[in-house]
Amino acid sequence: MTTTDIDDGLVVQGTGGGLREVVDRRHLLAMLVRKELRVRYRASVLGLGWSYVKPAVQFAVYFVGLGLVLRQTAIGDYAVYLFGGLVVVTTFSEAVGNATRSVVANGELVRKIFLPRELFPVASGCVAAVHLVPQLVVLVVGTLVAGWRPDAVGLLALAAGLLLVGVLALGLGLLLSALDVLYRDVENVVDLVLTVLVWTSPVLYPWQLVADLLGADSWLFTAYQLNPLTVAVELVHRGTWATASPGNLARTAPDLAARTVFAFAVAALLVLVGQRVFRRMSGRFAQEL
User: Where's the ABC transmembrane type-2 domain (predicted)?
Assistant: First the structure.
């Protein structure tokens, strides 16, 4: 046996098969998700019920402040519009924020045993998906009360919007969690960005206001429209708010189908880049932690 034969059989310690190995070891993923949920709601009276309380309180604050006090009447069915956007932004923020800290937070496991490191940011995304379910229940009930009549295109748009959030959060989670191991400032920067995230997409306001401010033909407005998170918010609006009242559909953003294709392409590219950076850096995780 030659030296080359030996070298070909070696695997760099701390690296694995990437996301494919996460799928193969989904039983470990399920264990990590259960662990995170147990830790989060330990000694809690409401437990998972907080998944309903937190978004409901956030929704109430924005609805009273913007919808009643500031008289936001430019948007029909404003409560449905607002909550649909909040579902997207809060889920994305939770997934990305927790994924960024996931490897550092599980430093003991990283140092002591080998398992696919990608499990940690993916598990954070799965926990956010668990918390998404009660928000969707509240959203569907609210839209039905407002007069929502689901249509095939709308349901497809709703599913596409939620899937886009998941793919986008996965790509950023992989990238940022790896960088956070080496540079702990990353999580602070992410917190700052997530704080203002709700204002970077048409969640609290109609997209027409941005067009009036920046100019409908300006490159800044084009960049705003091509933002994948903006596309995700508009897809959820198309799936819920757009058919709550007859006049809402005419106020949806144009060219949504083409921008959806572009947004998924960007999100998929982020997953590839995030996975590549994560795998290249994962061999140093145990040393850095």
Answer: 46-281
Tokens 């998404």 belong to residue: 132
d(CA 168, CA 200): 16
Does 121 score more than 50 pLDDT?
Answer: yes
Whether the pLDDT of residue 6 is over 90: the answer is no
CA dihedral defined by 57, 123, 34, 155, rounded to 10 degrees? 60
CA distance 182 to 205: 38
| Closest-CA residue to 99 (of 75, 119, 69, 70) | 119
Tell me how far apart the alpha carbons of residues 194 and 174 are, in angstroms, rounded to a whole number. Answer: 17
Where does the pLDDT of residue 3 fall: very low under 50, low under 70, confident under 90, or very high at 90 and above? Answer: very low
Residue at token pair 């989670």: 173
pLDDT above 60 (res 8): no
